[in-house]
Structures are given as C-alpha cells and as structure tokens.
Amino acid sequence: MKWLLPAMLVTVAACSEEAAHTNTQCPTLANYSGAFLDSDFYRGWQHLQRGEYPTENCRQASPYFLNGVNNSAVFELSTLYLDFCSETPQQDALTQSSIYHSERLATGVDYDEFKWVLDLALCNSPVEQYALGQMLFNGFITDKDVDKGIYFLSLAARQEHVQAQLALSTALLDIGENEVAAQWLAKAQDNGANILSERRPTD
C-alpha cells in the first residue's frame, strides 16, 4: 500500500499521465442528451476547461453549478462541482448528494450523470474520479470493488481533491492501513477540510 502515500510515485504518475493524454479527446459528447449539453452544469464545466488548472475558473463556473442544483437531471454533478470549487469544502454542500452518501436520496443519479462520471473519470478529472471511487468502494450503483474504489479515490486525492482525500483516508482505515490513512487525513486538513467523518485514524 505504499503507492497510496501522498508522495507521487512513478507507477501512479504514469497512469495519470496516460489519462491526461486521453483528456484531449474527452468527453465524447455524442454519448449525451441535448438537454444535458444545454444544462447549466455543462456550461459551468466548460468554463472550468478554459483554465490552466482545475479550479482556476471556479469563480466564473460556480454560478452555473448553483443553477444546476435546481435541475434534478444534473443535481449530482452540479453539487459535486460546487463543493470542488469551494475554498473551504463543507459537508453542508453535500447533504443531498446520493454519491457523497452512497445511497439513493431525493434526486438520485441521472443516467447522463452516471455516464459522465464513467467517461470523465478515465479522462483524469478529479471530481469524477472521486465520484467513481465512492461508487466502487461502497458498491453504490456499481458492483462493490474495494481495490478499484481506492485506486480512483487515490487518483483524485493526488490532484488535491479534498473530499477524495477524506474518503481515501476512511477507505484506508477500513482495510487496516491506519498510518497511510492518517497521512491523507492530515493532507486534507492542510487543504482546508473540515473533518466530515466521525472516524479517526488510530495509532
């Protein structure tokens, strides 16, 4: 499990670089409905893509994500991106998120949203890597796969996705990797996270 440490290692870096290369052709827009591509979420996402790093254009994109929260078809993605763009991630932003809680809540996960998560997670996008990691680790919508869940959470965590760092810490506790879990928790705290889980790494 040493590859899960916060330091970037060659094997994971190589995988991320391959995904980043694919990112130039992602997503495949033909896979999505016209309503999805006309949504406020998608417009906000387009603003983010114009930045040199993932959160550079959050100020321009966030109003679109805020509007997207009112559309059940893009509620999950809009909520996850609003949280991603927040300077200080808060649990309150995710109280109605099915993906965050790994259970179907009021809005559920729309089909286009699910396809988007699968598509963008393979395009090295940290928000979707976090979402897919949560799904796989908890067996929500997908079959449960702890190893793959931790893998995608680690990819997002290495891109400074705070919720992924917290989720990865909790996932590592579940498999007994307490020392590494504590390091990821500390890194999330350094990035401004509140402690969203009641569980804490123990020595």
TrEMBL record:
InterPro entries reported for this sequence: Sel1-like, TPR-like_helical_dom_sf
Q: Which domain of life does this protein belong to?
A: Bacteria
SUPFAM superfamilies under this entry? Answer: HCP-like
Where is coiled-coil annotated? none
Gene3D superfamilies per UniProt = Tetratricopeptide repeat domain
Question: Which PROSITE patterns does this one have?
Answer: PROKAR_LIPOPROTEIN
Tell me the protein's name. Sel1 repeat family protein
Taxonomic source organism: Grimontia sedimenti
The lineage, from the top, is: Bacteria, Pseudomonadati, Pseudomonadota, Gammaproteobacteria, Vibrionales
